[in-house]
Amino acid sequence: MTDTTPEIIFHNYPQSPVAEKVRVAFGIKGLAWRDVEIPRLPPKPMLTALTGGYRRTPVMQIGADIYCDSQCILRELDRRYPEPSYMPTADAGLMWCLSRWTDGELFTLALKLVLGAQGDDLPLDFAEDRGRLYLGEDWAEGLKKANTDLPHIVAQLRAPLSWINSVFSDGRKYLLGDAPAAIDAQVYHIIWFIKGRWSGGPEMLSEFTALTRWELDVAALGHGTPTPLDAQEAVETAQGTAPKSLIGVAPNDPQGLKVGDRVSINPDVDGGEQPVEGTLRYADAETVSIDRKGDDVGEVAVHFPRAGYRITVL
Asked: Which of 125, 134, 259, 268 is the most buried (most CB within 10 A)?
């Protein structure tokens, strides 16, 4: 019998810390996936053709269903491949709440540290793109402030790193116990970013011996089994199928959304990004999905987290 299970296609680039989070998540479940390498800087024409304009990294594609943001990606992977679980705990809700901090304020601190430490050595095009994305319209001043504030930023990072380090005092291997979980990937990608992209990272992290041991254990999980895929082949995969995801709106939607509404979706921050427009397909407390059609990709469903994204009815 031929296996008709659609492949996981992952649009990413090697240096992306957020993509590293998902690559580790693939390793936790031992998944096979197709690796589409995208440009580090816009334009990203093959990617944005699939997403309708969303340009952040990473994006996961399964057939004609396109999943934006690692929050959305991890939930979908756990739904499709429930064992081993990303949430081996009765406190899954608390873990998702904690992930909003790791992916929010903690990541922003790490970003300011890595970009600020490079100062004038940071390539201008990269500085302008990432600065605008994460620091807003006054990104240039933000980067200058980060450079002069480096000792303060390190101090702000040192406190939570010491807290995380203390978690291992009972001998546990991973953050929740003996089994790796989503929160391991969500914390690890920040350590990976600091250690690999800031020259002072290894020395700073060496203070936290339990955290350093844990980091090696998480790295040893690997990235599953990736095989390269050309971006054009990924687009052709979307063209050759139709979305398979759910259609509907859960009760008590605070915006009164309805299937078929024309909406736009964008991150709920001032990153200067293009909103994605489409027809509402699905919405609940965690996820919002839209249908789009384009000559280049055919009919696709694009999925976003509800937390951290703004939906506007057009």
From this structure: 134
